[in-house]
Each structure stands twice: as C-alpha cells, then as structure tokens.
Protein: Aminotransferase class I/II-fold pyridoxal phosphate-dependent enzyme
Organism: Streptomyces blastmyceticus
Amino acid sequence: MTEQLLDLTQHEIEALKTRFNLADAHTHQQQSPGQQEIVAALPALWYEAEATRQADLEDRFKEVFFRLHGQHSVRAESTMLSYAASISTLVAGMYLKRHDISVSLVEPCFDNLPDVLHNVGVQPVPVPEDVLHDADRIYERLAASVTTDALFLVDPNNPTGFSLLSHGRKGFEEVVRYCVDHDKLFIVDLCFAAFALADPRFGRFDLYELLDTSGVRYIALEDTGKTWPLQDAKCALLTCSRDLHEDVYNIHTSVLLDVSPFILNFLSRYVEDSIEDGMASVRDVITRNREAAQKALAGSLLEHIEPAVNVSVAWFRIQDANVKATDLQRHLAQHEVYVLPGTFFFWNEPERGESYVRLALARDPGEFLASVTRLREAVDGYGA
C-alpha cells in the first residue's frame, strides 16, 4: 500500500490509522496546565470572539504572535492571515506564477512546498541545503548555485533541523546580502521558527528589521500549526516587503476572506501562555521525546542526526547502505509503526533520501516512549 502513495501527506493520512504514529509533525501531546485553563474557558472565548470586531482580533493576534517571537519591526498592515501554511505558500506560488518568476528551493525540505509550486505551474530548481552550512561561504556558494529569479529557504528546515541561526545573525545577513546584490526575491518559510525561539541556544533576532532595512524584496511565511497542541486549529501569517504588498494582497483576497474569529481569539491565548512560560510547554516535550528516541534507538540500524535547532522532528540515517528507507518504512508499517521515508524530502532526487527516515516528536511522552520502543523492536527484526 505505502509504495502507491504520492506524497508525504498521503503517508501521514495512513499513519493516522496506525497505533504508533510517528509520521506527521502535527502536535498530538497533551495540554500543559496553562493550556488546560484555556480549554476550560472555550465557551467564554467563543462569546468574546462573537462580540469583537474581526479586525481587532486580527490585530491582537498579530501583536502577541510577533511579540512572542521578538519580531518588533513587523508592520501589522504588511501581514496577511490564512488558516493554513499551505494557503500562504499557495499565495506565494501564485505570485511567482503571475510574474513569471523562477525559483530555487532548498533540498531537502517537506514535499508540500515543491508540490504546491508545481500545482500552480512553477517548477522549482533545487539548491542544496549544504550551501548554507559554512557562514563564510554562503554568499559565494549561492552566487555559484542559484540561477533563478528567487530563492526559497526553510528555516529551521524540515526535516534536518538546520538553521541559519546556527551562524548567529551572519547566516541571514549573508543570504540577504546576496539577494540584494543579485536582485533576487527572497522567500523564507519560518513555520518551525518557534522551535528556535524555544531552544535556549538560539532564540530569534528581529529578522524583519534586517529584511526591511536591507531593501531586499521578500515574502516570509510563519505558522502556529506545528507549535501548540491545538487539534489543527491554526493560523498562518504571510508578510512581504512594501513593493510586493499590493500584488500579493490582491492574490490573497482572491483565495480567502479571513480566519475564524474564534480561532484567532483561541490562538492568542496560547501565544500569551507561551510568553508567560517562556516556551517551556513547547520545549520540554520535544526535548524529552528526542532524548527518548536517541536512547531507544542507540546502537540500532538508525543513527540520530543532531539538528542545529531542537525542532519537533528527528532525522535518522540508516547505517546499512543495503537497506532502503522505503523498504524499511514498509516493514515498520506492518508492525503498526509509521515513520516517513526520506525520499519525498529529497523532492528533486528521491534516491538520495533512501538513507534517511523522519520521526515526529510532538507526542504525549508516554505514548511516544511506547512508539519508539516498538520501533526499536521492529527495526531489530528487519531482515531477520
């Protein structure tokens, strides 16, 4: 069955039917004490939203979201909201198509990004993630690698956890400097940025100040969907430079009117809760589960690749060159354990992904431990 599936989302749909779902990166952990109080107040939040202007709820959500992330330079009017990051990506893709803008997209990354671009008639060209790994060579390696009109990066990246923040400010500064000097549109997917914020080694500097003062043309995508246990109640944010705003806004309004006022009210409380607890509810479960996965799989066929940022997914290398990810994933599914093969993340060269699998970490720790224990048993039984 699994070999007939066309993309990672189809795999994730199948994984929702299994007992040990380590596939989708959506948040399935239980509520923290502060979040339990929000859930208990849902009726009041409903009526509060009902009595409040849509514009006020939108402004409040943007304010608390960017305050949490330390992005104090964002102009509220430059940010457009949608109910899923895929919709924001669709709008960005439609802008590229309308203006006949060619784009280079980082590889590996989640296959939803190239799929959305393909579906609107944009054919992305791969740019290897490793061109970003040496801060002193980012500029020259981009100059040698990028032949398109736009550069599309994911930071932190899904599935690897790499981030330009591993270079401090310099990583983003070098990318922006390259884009300005070479007149490239810079598109950046920041949907995992909350994990950099939650990681005490990183945090976030005010990226929008850098973008807006540099003169770069840009589209930035942010999201709530992978951060809090919201049962997929979420909101994505698209922010662009002034020179793009009118065109992007006109495309955006052709796609949707607004995000549910109740969802905006509900989400704002979760964001405020994370401001109060310093992102502990996000950080602690991911850290605990990553450690559990490393311990459970130590010495096995799967080798954990340490991410730059402690994101909500774990990337494992298959240590036996004769074992392919697609075969291993099929074997694991027969044992009710569902992981994602690396092939789809290497969207231009799937064969390169046969050496990797991805595990999702945003799970209740007790259930996650049971899953990785079963995973280890199934991995050890592979080929036996």
In short: The chain has two domains: 2-25+280-380, 33-277. The chain has a mean pLDDT of 96. The chain is about 45% helix and 15% strand. Residues 2-25+280-380 form a domain with the Aspartate Aminotransferase, domain 1 fold (CATH 3.90.1150.10).
